[in-house]
Each structure stands twice: as C-alpha cells, then as structure tokens.
Fold this protein.
Amino acid sequence: MIIDCHGHYTTAPAPHNDWREAQKAAFKAGEVPPLYPTLSDDEIRETLEKNQLRLLRERGADMTIFSPRASAMAHHVGDEAVSTAWARHNNDLIKRCVDLYPDVFIGVGMLPQSPGVPIENSIAELERCVNELGFVGCNLNPDPSGGHFSAPPLIDRSWYPFYEKMVELDVPAMVHVSGSCNPVFHATGAYYISADTTAFMQFIQGDLFGDFPELRFIIPHGGGAVPYHWGRYRGLADMLKQPPLDGHVMKNVWFDAAVVVRPNSTPDQLERIAARIRQIGVKRILYGSDAASSPLAYPKAGWAALQRLPLTNTELVVMANNIAPYMRDFAVR
Amino acid sequence: MIIDCHGHYTTAPAPHNDWREAQKAAFKAGEVPPLYPTLSDDEIRETLEKNQLRLLRERGADMTIFSPRASAMAHHVGDEAVSTAWARHNNDLIKRCVDLYPDVFIGVGMLPQSPGVPIENSIAELERCVNELGFVGCNLNPDPSGGHFSAPPLIDRSWYPFYEKMVELDVPAMVHVSGSCNPVFHATGAYYISADTTAFMQFIQGDLFGDFPELRFIIPHGGGAVPYHWGRYRGLADMLKQPPLDGHVMKNVWFDAAVVVRPNSTPDQLERIAARIRQIGVKRILYGSDAASSPLAYPKAGWAALQRLPLTNTELVVMANNIAPYMRDFAVR
C-alpha cells in the first residue's frame, strides 16, 4: 500500500474560507464571529474528487495523510480564541473528508496555537483529534508568530507537556510552519525551508529524544536544507559533543520526499537523489507529495518519477511501506 | 591562480577581542569605551602564520578574500556608535593583514549596521573600505537584529541607496548574517543557512537586478538550501511570473563552495556535487573555504577533494579562475 504522508486540504469549499474571512473581520471589529456555515457532503465531495482524489489515482497511491491547509492555519492571526475556533472547524472538516472516503484519507489535525500562548493549551484539541476524530497525528507549528521566530526552540522544556501527550497518545507530529506575515520570508520559498532546517538543528542541540525516546517528528519538504548539508550537520553534532546523527536525531525524525523528485528529473538527478536517500537511510524517508499545495504540484509523472529512482526493489519496497510513524496507531484499528 | 573567496579573520589577537568585551561593558554601563589597544605587527603575523596562511599553503591556494570574523560582527549588540567603532577597528585590522601579506590577503569589510538604523549610514564605511583601505567588497548583513529578521527584505527600496554606492564603487557584497541572539537559531547550523536561502528567494521575488543590472552578490555556504531545492526555485520563479533563474537572479548572484566538498567525500558524492555544480553553472561557483571559521574547517584534503570533483579540466579551470565578482576591481590595480 502506498500512503502519501503529506497532503493538505487546499481546496476546502468556499463557504469555509469565507467564514474565516468573516471571523478575522469580526475579531478586528471586536464583534462575535458569524455562525459556521453548513456544508453539504456533495460540496465536500466535489472539491476532493476534482483534486486530491484525482491526483492520488493518477499517482497510483492508495491513501493520504490529510491535514488542513498549512498556509491557512495562520496562527499569527487573531488570538487564542480565534485559533481555537478555526482549528476546530478545520479539523471537523478533515473528519468529514475521512468519513466520506475512509479508505483514502487518514486525518491529521492542526492545533489552536497562538503567539505567546502556552502549548499546553493545544493539548485538548490534540486529544479531541486523536480520541474523538480518530486522527493519527498533528501538524506542530514551531513558530506561531508567522515568521518572527519568537517561540522557544523545540527542545525547550516549555514544549514538554505537549510532547508528553503526544507520547501518551502515541502520535507523531509534522513540524510545519504556516503562512508568513514577515515580508522577509516568502512562505514556501524561504519560511518553510528555513523552519525545517532550523527544527533539525534544534534537535541536534538538545537531548530531546533522550528525554522522550518515543517522540516522533516528520520534517517535511525533503528535510529543508539538511540532506544537502548533511556533512555540516554531522560535523556540528560532533562539535557539540552530541551522538552521531544516525544514533540520535535520526532515530526519531523522518523526512518526507515532497518536491524532491520532479517529473522531468534526469537519470543523472535520479542517481543523486537515490544516493542521498541511501545516505539518510531508506527507512527514514516517507513518500509525501505536499499535493495541491501550490501550482508546483505535479500529477502522475511525479509519482512515476519517484518509482524511477535507481534504488533496489527492496529499498523501494521499504520506502513504499514506510507507514511509520503515522500509521502505528492506525494499523491497529 | 586559486583565490579562496570566503575567509574570515577568526583568530584576531586577544587584545582586539578583549577591547570588544570592554566596549560592550562600557555601553551597558553608559560609559566611554577604553582606547583601542596597540597591536604589534608580530602579534598579527603570529595569528595568521599559524592559521590562515598555513591552511592556504596546505590547500594550494594563492590568495584569500579576507574579512572580519562574521559571527563577531554582532550588529545586534549595542547601538550604531558601538557598531561603527567596532567595524572601523575590524576593518583597520584587516587592512594591516593585507599590508603585511599583500600577495595573500584581499580585504573585504564589515559594515556598521545596527537594528533599525538606515543602511545609508553604512555608506561612509563602505567608501572608506574601498577608497582608503583598498578593499574589494563588503559583507552585507540582511538581518542586523541577530535572528529576529526585523529588517526589510533585500529587495526593499530602503536598501537601494547602499546598492547605488556598491554599483558606483563597482564592488560586490557577500550576504552574510552574524551571530544569533535568538535561541531558535543555532548560528552556523540554522541561522546562516536560513538567511542564505531567504536572501535567494527575495532576489527571485523582486526585480532588483532589473533596477541594478551591475549589482553583484555572493551567497555563501554553498547557497544555503537553494541548490538542493533547485527545482522548487525554478518552479517558484515560474509561478511568480519571474524570468527563469539563469536569465535573472543567476546573472548577478554567485554561490561559494564552502563546506560542500568534504575530505572524506566518496566518489559517489563527488559525482553528485559535480552534477549540481554543473546545474548551477560552473561560472557561478566560487571556491571558498570559510576557513578556520569553526572546527569544521579542514586542511589540505579539503582543497584536494574539491580538485577531485569529476569535472572536466576545462570546468575546473573555469571554477579555479572565477575571480569575479570580487576581483574585477582588483585585477585593474
């Protein structure tokens, strides 16, 4: 079974997005937001059939780990109450997608994070996502400020209460920032990649996985800059007197392969990507398309390209079956 | 002639660093800083002979573009007056290195940047560096806040007066942040790489090089995450309706090869690096060691490794002779 580990609901029905605009306007005006609209199953089906389901079929994948649109989480907008309402509506919408296509979608939730608000306040929504909605993980935003990087590093103890809950519920998190409100950072071109890279370096700096041996993270977008600078990170681990990466950080961290292989990748490029994947370890790579998150998303040929990687059949099978860490729980159900 | 495009004076004599500590203490106490110490030529020679000159010889390179220690620029410390005094002393010290070893060192200056202070205020020091000290460029810090990314993007018009002066003086800048005062960012593991990547994306977003066809930047540390995500950047340029990278940004931007080739790189890795360099274009790659900037610096074998790259002799010669953009002025003298 081929599971896409990184899919977002980027095509939610218009009334859902309209409500968000109304919610933001109400916050600005100091008013109560309007009631969330009623969405029909057909409305939801239509947005999925034309997009995610079509792409999935074209790629020959079977299921998608499906979470709310990352760039729209926008934890920097409004306050905690705004984020809480927005997170609940988004997660409920994902749950409806899962219920409509239970053989295709596996839910992952967004959190009601807000700048300066303790991460403890996101625990209730994580519990609701896992225990009530049947989700298998969450997207954890390391920078709810939207590009000002004002939150403590992910190895800071202030994050620990949330990690304890993740371990207790046995669910992983994808480290994923949202939209940027800092003009310095283009969201997908600078902010995402910088945040991915920065998270990885934080994991090297601390002993987070000594404290939480069961804690599991996915670093998306091919691992940011990390695979390219693998020698730098090995050297920094050594310089900081930390264990080698493969015996430390890489026991708890997975990279996705989103936007790494292109439909038009040359044989030469495929060789290099395959070699890099081997260096990281095929067990640490998850197939993820980041599908329909941008015009960069590519159909059929994209997944075909991934399969064209000059890896051994055994290695491809390992990658294709890398359902951990998301699916550990799911497989039990 | 082999010129290392990225070298810092990381081993300045102790009295220089002691003065900096005294300067910071005086600023905190609201007092006048002590007089800058007198440094003998022998003191300076000793720090260079044992370090940069030894490494240069071992690597078989001929000259080094030499600038003040990047992590110690610390523009976020103190105020504009503090940065101004510190920049002048650092640049004067680089000038002394150049005078002691004129066949080896080529000076590049740091700027008296300070958070919130207009970049115009750095023009005088750039002029002094070029016209009085004979330097061939500067290190431009895109984030003088030290990790809060509070300055406008490099394509913002507020930077333009400085760019006008760069063009007038016909000197390039290396985009180089300094130390991080944000615990989120490990300086060399997260901050440098994020800033490099972010600068490149900013260049894609605007039409800076349409406004300044002669403006030249070096993005260090192998170009941050950019070469790894080359497909992403090509796609983003397309999505933002910008010209293709090779007809736009890459006409004005160079990457260095610092910390890309390791002494223990395998033939397989060398193949990949060579292919990546070809993709960017050998003319856009400058040999840079980032020498002695950290314990990651490596001797003899490092430069030997770069020469072991499976590039054609013609390509290696192009790379070895890539003296632009720093040396355009220099060659004239």
